[in-house]
Structures are given as structure tokens and as C-alpha cells.
Amino acid sequence: MNCPHCSTTVVAGAASCPACGFSTPAIRALLGGDWVRLERITDRSQRLSLRDTRHLEVCLDDFERAFPQCFLALYLGPLPDNLTPCDLGFWMLNHGAFQSLQIMKRNEFGIALVLDTLGQRAGITAGYALERHLPPDFLQLLLISVGPRLRKGALASAVESVVAQTARRLKTSARPAPRPAPVQAVVLPGSGLSCFEPLRQRSDSATSLRS
Amino acid sequence: MEDGALQSDDLNLFLQGGPEQARRPASDPVSSPLRELSPARIAGLRSLPRDTWLMDPLALLPAPQSQSLHRLLQYHAANATSRLHLLVIEQDQFLPDQANPGLFAGGALSGNNAALIVCPLGETWRSRFYLGSSLREGVPAHLAAEMIRDCVRDSQLVLDPKQQLQRLAVRASTWLFRLENFLKPAPAQSLRNPLREIAPAINSSAEAPGNLSVLWLPAFGLAFLLSLMLWKHSRRATFPDERIWLLEEPEIVPRLGGAFCGGGGAVLHHGKTGGPRSKA
């Protein structure tokens, strides 16, 4: 695998990059070493409309449902020149507690997509468990395929394409699991409306809820 | 790696949350029995204007929170086919069954595409979701149940009751955008059509095969195949692939000190000058 900062090949077990010295302590000195709660979509550049954000949340939800072990986190914003998108992706996956569908997902199955809106760079970083399924050459081709959309400023469309292509790629090496059993909702009649309350069945006595 | 002028605090500003985030204690469970929302309050809800997306009869929310939620729901109404209303009540209250929520907000909730969430502030797990007929009949029951579970679960990721409410509303809005694919045209008079049309029926009044001329047979077969392909395409759009996929977990030797990620990835410079420059 390559160093996220200078792309020099780094062997397994290496504590730092032999070329530039990149390492976890080095990036912690820049960004901090504490765990940080992160949203799946962080848009510091305000480039996504609310509708785009909602749409991307739906895309990410679908992705996480199809691959319950995995999640994809997106960061959009300006980065300083001395920080590459993969540097930030490396830091996010090693220090981030992501607000995904299931907060207990392991970061080894995470994917960090970083779009540097100032330097016009895009970086995608995968956790250890996904490296074999998403090799660097595939990730490179993936970014190249969405390059035109990024240049046009169609960021939401580019992200959606990244998610879709990643899902297609993962399906080639994943095994399908049986569908979960359907859940029946409790439908209580309302007046012109119907109430879905599958979490708890209310009884006639209000006090029973507190028993 | 050279030291930049950037300090860690500067970059931490763009990341939400953090170890210094103040944590409020979880709301204590109420020991007294639940109270019904009073008839006077219910009458007040009925007299509200139709575009009252956020109903807070007890003024439980501070002004900034209230305005933020109102803007969110207003945006939803402007951009979505469905209408989402939110009723906030106290932690130990509930909406009685005879309250007839369809009459709230001047009858706006009696619309076919209306959705109402009644949320006790601080106890989002007791939220009740009301859906209009188009949503009720169009959305599969298991998706509606998943929507509710997901909204409540997401809200429970934070401790502050007002943030829980915000997350609940955002999540519900996102879900309703997603479920618009299932919305059916509003039935004119009757609501007795629980089945969702999922396939275009082949014309059953076609001539019996014995009466068809030879030239019609391939055309009929082609039409059948096209119909089948269109049906599969529409079904795929209406019923997204609900299978789940599991990945193997290979043993990886950590690199660069990363506990979960060794930096494996790719970068692309997509700026307009010089074309794409990539580094794997």
C-alpha cells in the first residue's frame, strides 16, 4: 500500500513512511489524537443544498443497509496545502466515531471520501478490512470516473456515483445473506390518518407504560 | 512531513463534536403516570393555521430551536410531495386516541400525503407516527416500521432532548423523501385499495392464440418481453434490492500506526488547469 501523504510504497508493519515520515503521531500532531464524533456528511464548504444532502443521506442509508458492516463518510471543505485528502481520510477513519445507521460499526470497514473544495482534490481512503475488496487501482479509476462531475461542480452526483460504483464492486467479492424476516407494523386506526406504533403497544391504562 | 502553520485546534473546528462536548444527563424517567393532552390544547391545535408545520402548544422549545425546526419542515413541504408536521408535547404526556389529529392545523393533516409525528420531548421512543392514506397505502408496512425505528434510533444517539427532536425531524424528512417512490395517486372516494400496482397487466382481451395470424405471434412475443423488462425495471425502482451483503474480514498488519486504516486509497487532482493528475 502507499503512503497517504506522498504515495510512496509502505510495507506492512511500517511505523512511518520511509520517504516523508508520515505516521499516526505526525498526523495527530496536526489534527489531534482524541476520538471525535463525526457525521457521515460534513459539508464545511456549504456546497451541498439541503436537497442534495437529504438525497445523499438516502444513498448512504441504502449503502449501509446493503452492506451492514460498512459505512461511507463524506467530508467537503477546504484543506490546507500541507494536508492531502488521504491524510484527512486516514485521520478520520482512525479517530472518528461516525454517526452511521449503526453507531457500533467498526472503522476498518469504513470509507472516507474527502473533497477538497479549495485545492480541487479528491481523496478516498478505505479501512483495513476493505483494502482487499477496494484495491488502490480501483479507487483511482473510481475517482477518475467522477472527475468530470467534480470539475463541473456536480458534487452530489459525483458522490452518488462513488457510492454506487463502490457498492457494485463490493458485491463482486461479498456473499449475499438471507433477507431478514419482514416486520409487521401495528396499525392503529386514526381519523383520516393511521398510526404506526411498532415500538410499544399501548394498553388501555396509561399507567401500564410506567410499570 | 513538514510542520505547517496549522494548529490542531484550527482544524478541529471543522469537525463537529469532540471530547469537550458537554454532556447533559439523560432525562430522568417520569415516575408519575402519563397525562393526556388537555381538550383545551387539542382545540387550540385544531385552530392553528394550515401551514403550522411545527406545533408546540406548550412552548417547550426555545425560539431558535423552534425556528430551525419550522424552517426544516417548511423546506420539506416546499420540496417534497408529502407534508410533515411535528407536534411536541411534554415528556409525561400523550395524545389521546379520540383527539382526531386529522383536524389539527385547520384540517391540513387530513390530506392524503400528510404525516404527523407526535413526539414527547425527551422521550422520542414514545413518538407516534401518523400517515395519510397515500402514504399508508403506498408504503409497505415493514418500511414504515423501519422508518420509525430508524428515526427513533437516530434521535437516541444524542442526549439533549431538543437535539433528539431535531434529529428525529431530520431523519423523518429524509425518509419521507425516500418513500415518495411509493406514493400513490389519491383515491377519489374510497380508500379500499390496499394493494399497490406493481406490474402492468398484459391486455387480457387479446385475441385467442388460435385466431392470431402468424405475423402477430412474434409481435406479441416482443411486446411480452418488453413488458417484462419494463416491469422488472419499475420493480427494481420501486423495490430496491433489499439483499444484504457480507464481506470477509481478512487479517491485516497495521501500517503507519493506524488502528483501523493504513492509508490505502487514492487521490485525484481534478482542477481545471492541467487536467486530472492522479496518485494511487
Radius of gyration of chain A: 21 Å
The outline of chain B comes out as extended
Distance between the termini of chain A: 57 Å
Mean pLDDT of chain A: 82
Number of strands of chain B: 9
**CATH topology-level fold name of chain A:** Diaminopimelate Epimerase, Chain A, domain 1
- Beta-strand level of the residues of chain B, as a percent range? 5-15%
How many DSSP-defined strands of chain A? 9
Assembly category: heterodimer
H/E series of chain B, N to C? HEHEHEEHEEHHHHEEE
Query: Which bin fits the share of residues in helices of chain A?
Result: 25-40%
Please tell me the CATH architecture of chain A by its name. Roll
CATH class of the domain at 26-182 in chain B: Alpha Beta
**Biggest β-sheet of chain B, characterized?**
4 strands, mixed
**If strands are numbered along the chain, what order do they take across the biggest sheet of chain A?**
2-3-5-6
Question: How many helix segments of chain A?
Answer: 6
Primary descriptors:
heterodimer; A: 211 residues; alpha/beta; Diaminopimelate Epimerase, Chain A, domain 1; 4-stranded mixed β-sheet; 6 helices; 36% helix; 18% strand; disordered C terminus; B: 280 residues; 9 strands
How would you describe what is shown here?
The complex is a heterodimer of chains A (211) and B (280). In chain A, helix 2 links the parallel strand 2 (41-43) and strand 3. Chain A has helices at 24-31, 50-66, 85-95, 128-131, 136-152, 155-173, and strands spanning 36-38, 41-43, 71-77, 96-98, 110-116, 121-126, 175-177, 187-189, 194-196. Chain A is globular. Chain A contains 6 helices and 9 strands. Chain A starts with 23 loop residues before the first helix and ends in a 15-residue tail after the last strand. Chain A has one domain: Diaminopimelate Epimerase, Chain A, domain 1 (Roll). Chain A is of the alpha/beta class. In chain A, helix 2 runs parallel beside helix 6 and helix 5 (136-152) packs antiparallel against helix 6 (155-173). Chain B is of the alpha/beta class and 280 residues long. Chain B has a domain at 26-182: Diaminopimelate Epimerase, Chain A, domain 1. In chain B, 34% of the residues lie in helices and 12% in strands. Chain B has helices at residues 8-12, 39-46, 63-79, 104-107, 133-138, 141-155, 161-178, 216-238; strands spanning 35-36, 54-55, 83-89, 93-94, 114-120, 128-131, 244-246, 265-269, 277-279. In chain B, the strands form 3 sheets. Chain B has a 4-stranded mixed β-sheet. In chain B, strands 1-4 form a two-stranded parallel sheet. In chain B, strands 8-9 form a two-stranded antiparallel sheet. The radius of gyration of chain B is 27 Å and the shape is extended. Mean pLDDT of chain B is 73; it is low at 1-27, 189-212 and 274-280. Chains A and B meet through helix 1, strand 1, helix 2, helix 3 and strand 6 of A and helix 1, strand 1, strand 6, helix 6 and helix 7 of B.
